[in-house]
Amino acid sequence: MADNTNFIEEIINKDLESGAVSEIITRFPPEPNGYLHIGHAKSLCINFGMKEEYHGKCNLRYDDTNPSKEDVEFVNSIKEDIAWLGFEWDNELYASDYFDRMYECAVGLIKKGLAYVCDYSADEIRNTRGNLTTPGQNSPWRDRSVEENLRLFEEMKDGKYADGEKVLRAKIDMASPNMNMRDPVIYRILREKHHRTGDKWIIYPMYDFAHPLEDAFEGVTHSICTLEFEDHRPLYDWVKYNCGFGDFPKQIEFARLNMTRTIMSKRYLKKLVEEGKVDGWSDPRMPTLSGMRERGYPPEAIRNFCAAAGVSKSNSEVDVAMLEHFVRDYLNVNADRMMVVRNPIKLIVENADRDEVYDIENNPNAEVKTTHKVSFGRELFIDRDDFAPVPPPKYKRLVPGGTVRLKGSYIVEYVSHKCDDDGNVTEVVCRYIPDSIQGGVNCEMKVKGVIQWVNAKDCVDLTLHEFDYLLLDGDGDFNDRLTPDSHTVYPSAKGEAALREVKPYDRFQFMRMGYFSAVRDYGKDGKYEFNMITGLKDRYGK
Hints:
elongated, alpha/beta, about 25% strand, 13 helices, seven-stranded mixed β-sheet
């Protein structure tokens, strides 16, 4: 057995070796009330990872037991995100597939004297539950007869009572040290149209009752969930055993993923969407998987990150720089290099009397080396930050009287520059030094630096979107930590002609700037826009 086997694998290995199970079946059970985020990616990687490691199965099962918050939009987005990450589910299932069977299980508990209809309101149930040092109080309706409970439960199903007027509770132990075992509600009345069953049902099972039954109905062997469900495991087992199932499914809990400067609350992410703080669930600043896809994160990098984050039983917080490290590590090998200027100014090469075309290497780190062509001419664009009339200390780009190399081309020397009425530089004039291109006799001349450039004759007009974290660093309420300006737009950027031909979601390293991804509708109606994925500087481990 490998030394790096995690505790989940150790449990599964023992169950296989003992013969308790012969095939591993897991499931990923999202509630379709929002979009998946990076925290869900860890659960996806674990559950589908167990399928891959043990050549078993993993079901996609929607926990659609709360129709007031669920929508087909979320169902579709979840499927798209899972497929994007590279996972394949064996069966697409829904909790609502089992509503009839769950109802029969509840009737079975009533017949065993293990469930009763209670007339308490939600507040009254909460107020009589007790606390960690005080036992709860029995409901006045706890000892209703089996016959009366069966009649009342059927009347709940048939719509005789108002929402919240009655509930079905499990009869367990109001003095249990585990609060979840103090006669929990297992069915409630809820008149909401369901996205799959319509108006058929007006009573719906609670999650803690539905989930173990769903797992059992599907033959799930190991129900892997996050650590907050550890205290719910006794109730999971109680439902499982008293509804006629054995030792399996077995619930196993792991620590959820928490990251610095990252919102992991689906409720709060939904609030950001509804209040217009972001442009929908797929806004590139969002930690949703769809937002990361729009930003340009490679799914391979997310899976590598989740693998490195590991599986543990202890809650901890991961630096968001770790995720960016894996994104950058993947793109360093897989993203071609291109030249783009964010804030362009004209560079006139006064002695350039003809156009030239060069082959530029796409990616020095790629396994297979390829090139693309870039043209050079009399009028170029360089970035405004790459020329300083009055240079600050340690400035290593073009200055009056200085020289600089144009990436992949000539060394140029300053001649003059022009400014507008406000003193802003509008144009720089230079001369190229003959034979200073690669292989020329003057190629080895020492210069201050190397800058990117594009040919004004054939460059493409670009819009660049750059992003900051949604949250400021530190602790406290999310509302007080929202970054004021987390989205910056550069509408006048210029890029190499080759960028005119790229496809949506193609990723590049824009030299000296960062990694960028073409937007979803790139090229449509002459729209050439890129989202910044991440910068070039790696903070992780420094």
